[in-house]
Design goal:
The complex is a heterodimer of chains A (about 220) and B (about 400). Chain A has about 220 residues and is of the alpha/beta class. Chain A has 6 helices and 9 strands; from the N terminus they run E-E-E-H-E-E-H-E-H-H-H-E-H-E-E. Chain A is globular and about 50 Å long. In chain B, the strands form 3 sheets. In chain B, strands 1, 3, 4, 7, 8, 9, 10, 11, 13 and 14 form a 10-stranded mixed β-sheet that branches. In chain B, strands 2-12 form a two-stranded antiparallel sheet. Chain B has a two-stranded antiparallel sheet with strand order 5-6. The chains are: A alpha/beta (about 220), B alpha+beta (about 400). The complex binds adenosine-5'-triphosphate (ATP) and magnesium ion.
């Protein structure tokens, strides 16, 4: 799924520092695996939120999958995000009072194929097996799981709707180098399976070696943190 | 899914949720209880006087006469003469009279001297006549008829002999062991003070009062016995149209200072006297409810801060701001629903338990059927209050959600 930003400017309301992002033109191609690095507080998460349609630009255009997000209603954006975009955060990827299965179902619930059809159960099981989550854990509330297990369930959740764009916001920051490498391999394999475009953000420049294309946020954001 | 999330989220926050549920349950019990009991008390009082046109007694206040003659509350200050009673009875506007002679007790239950008219003409609730569970009316001097709760509480059977004391109060110094009375009848429960009363003839009362020196037999075997005085008389008229005329006639009677009252008017005066109490009770119960919902409001608002990540995540998987705000409202409503159920059952069962006590202590029957329009109104009111109480949390969330 392609992404284009045009003459974009974003500032948080009442932010004394002025704009957080100012981008003339920037794009990601369909099927690409793009890595973006940048220091903390430079606006990486803000950029991802704009692409996901959680924030709307102060000025300018966000075009995702050739659709102008900025001209959609907020309901349309929510629907679009639920159906097309998978998201993984550094932490708090799951609602901890819901079971593993329910967390994944929740993501399916808001997507276009809202009907919790019979293939859903199967798809969830396949994903969880592929991610090496033992069936004993499936009905457990997620708060009883380890950080690593939770992070893998987050992947399952992100991929359940077969998203065409996967956004990962520092998903490996709480993992050690070895686990991080494994995590990225797994992410790549699943992106391959579901034909998802990947947008991966981190403050750790080192990770760029895994990706087709890598750039720093400061290289295209005119606001310098 | 929506409902499931709300339930699970409440379960995950058991501690604070339970405290809120408890606070709202208690406050709802207070408001339901107060409303129900005050309404039932009014009904119960009104049902005790349902068929009476006038109550006549020695001159005192309207309320006092009503309370002691019908509700057995307080004691009569003066008696009225038998002559005045007969004058009333013979008045051509009068359909029936029930003489009442009060002032004695047995085991703390009031003893009422009256005549057979009582069983014929007395009406309670919706024109219901008294009915016997067992036995018959009294005929001889030493016969008594028990109210339902008296028989039950004291476990008295037909034909049992009991001693009646002179005066009011559980222990009395003048116990006339010489005159045992015999139970000849037991009434069906009525839900009025009658259940708490022991009935006997006017002669029976005279027998209790007669001094030991007099030979009882010589006194009461004579055919035309006349008591010297009675406490009050309940009057039924041939036509209700005559009630004011009759009242004026009695009140202006020159031979003896008497007071005739319309029970409905006297009751209205009683409610008016109690209105301030009723209003303050209602105000207090509303304040209790409001403070409980404020507590809920604070609880929800503080939970929003702890749930920042959860809300962000819900947004990310595609939940609309509306969904999230509705979720918070639903959680609040669920807390209220659970509380309402607990409160309704709580009140229902406590009334069930307290009914008997209230009846015997105050002569008021409280129906434990609380499922009335008032309950529905209270319930809807509290539900609306809850929705308002959740608004600060909801608005806060909505603002947060807009700028992730
Ligand atoms: N909700 C908000 N309201 C106002 N300002 C915000 C808000 N969120 C972020 N900011 C500001 O915007 C800037 C960029 O924040 P952002 O979270 O995008 O940084 P980041 O690059 O993701 O940092 P990190 O690597 O620590 O996650 C920061 O200076 C931050 O203070
Ligand atoms: Mg960030």
């Amino acid at each position: 799924m392609s992404i284009h930003l045009k003459n974009l400017e974003f500032c948080y309301p009442k932010n004394p520092c002025g704009a957080t992002l100012k981008i003339d033109s920037w794009s990601v191609h369909e099927g690409e695996k793009r890595f973006i690095w940048g220091d903390s507080g430079t606006g990486k998460s803000t950029l991802l939120n704009l692409i996901a349609g959680l924030l709307t630009p102060t000025v300018g255009e966000v075009i995702v999958d050739n659709q102008p997000l900025y001209s959609m209603t907020s309901t349309q954006r929510d629907k679009f995000r639920a159906s097309n975009i998978g998201y993984i955060f550094q932490r708090f990827n799951l609602i901890n009072y819901l079971s593993v299965i329910d967390n994944i179902k929740l993501a399916a619930y808001f997507s276009k194929s809202k009907k919790l059809d019979d293939t859903l159960e199967k798809r969830i099981e396949d994903l969880l097996e592929r991610l090496n989550i033992s069936p004993f854990l499936w009905q457990q509330p997620v708060e009883k799981l380890s950080v690593g297990q939770q992070q893998r369930i987050a992947i399952a959740r992100a991929f359940i709707n077969q998203p065409r764009l996967l956004i990962a916001d520092e998903p490996t920051s709480s993992l050690d180098k070895n686990a991080a490498d494994k995590f990225i391999k797994l992410l790549f394999a699943l992106c391959q399976t579901f034909q998802s475009t990947l947008l991966f953000v981190s403050h750790d420049e080192q990770l760029k070696m895994h990706f087709d294309s890598a750039q720093s946020l400061s290289s295209f954001n005119q606001v310098q943190g | 899914m929506f409902f499931k999330i709300a339930c699970q989220s409440l379960r995950a926050r058991k501690g604070s949720v339970l405290i809120s549920v408890f606070a709202i349950t208690v406050s709802m019990m207070v408001i339901i209880g107060v409303e129900h009991i005050s309404k039932q008390a009014k009904n119960s009082f009104a049902s005790s006087v349902s068929g009476i046109d006038l109550i006549v007694g020695a001159r005192t206040s309207q309320l006092n006469l009503l309370l002691y003659s019908v509700f057995r509350i307080g004691s009569p200050t003066n008696n009225m003469s038998w002559q005045s009673y007969q004058n009333i009875e013979q008045n051509k506007a009068v359909a029936w009279t029930i003489p009442l002679s009060l002032g004695d007790s047995h085991q703390g239950y009031r003893v009422l001297g009256t005549n057979q008219n009582y069983f014929v003409h007395f009406r309670y609730r919706d024109n219901q006549a008294l009915a016997f569970a067992e036995g018959r009316e009294f005929q001889g001097t030493y016969e008594i008829v028990l109210g339902a709760s008296v028989a039950k509480k004291l476990n008295y059977q037909l034909q049992q002999s009991i001693i009646i004391a002179h005066g009011i109060g559980k222990t009395s110094f003048h116990q006339h062991d010489r005159f045992p009375f015999r139970v000849v009848g037991i009434l069906e429960p009525t839900g009025t003070p009658i259940d708490e009363t022991i009935h006997t003839s006017l002669k029976g009362i005279e027998a209790i009062h007669s001094s030991a020196s007099k030979s009882a037999n010589s006194l009461f075997n004579g055919g035309n016995f006349e008591p010297s005085a009675i406490t009050a008389v309940l009057v039924g008229l041939k036509s209700r149209m005559q009630v004011f005329g009759m009242q004026r006639q009695i009140n202006t009677n020159r031979s003896e200072p008497l007071l005739a009252i319309l029970p409905g008017v006297a009751l209205a005066e009683l409610w008016q006297a109690l209105a301030i109490l009723e209003k303050s009770l209602r105000l207090i119960s509303i304040v209790v409810v409001v403070s409980a919902t404020l507590g809920l409001s604070a609880m929800l608002l503080s939970s929003i801060d702890q749930r920042k990540e959860e809300i962000k995540l819900l947004r990310m998987v595609g939940a609309s701001p509306f969904f999230i705000c509705s979720l918070i409202e639903l959680e609040a409503v669920l807390i209220t629903l659970i509380s309402a159920l607990l409160a309704i059952f709580g009140v229902y069962f406590s009334l069930f338990g307290a009914q008997q006590y209230i009846l015997s202590a105050y002569g008021v029957i409280i129906d434990n059927n609380i499922f009335t329009y008032e309950l529905v109104a209270i319930f809807i009111g509290i539900l609306l209050l809850t929705i308002f109480a959740a608004l600060p949390a909801t608005i806060n969330t909505f603002r947060k959600v807009k700028f992730t």
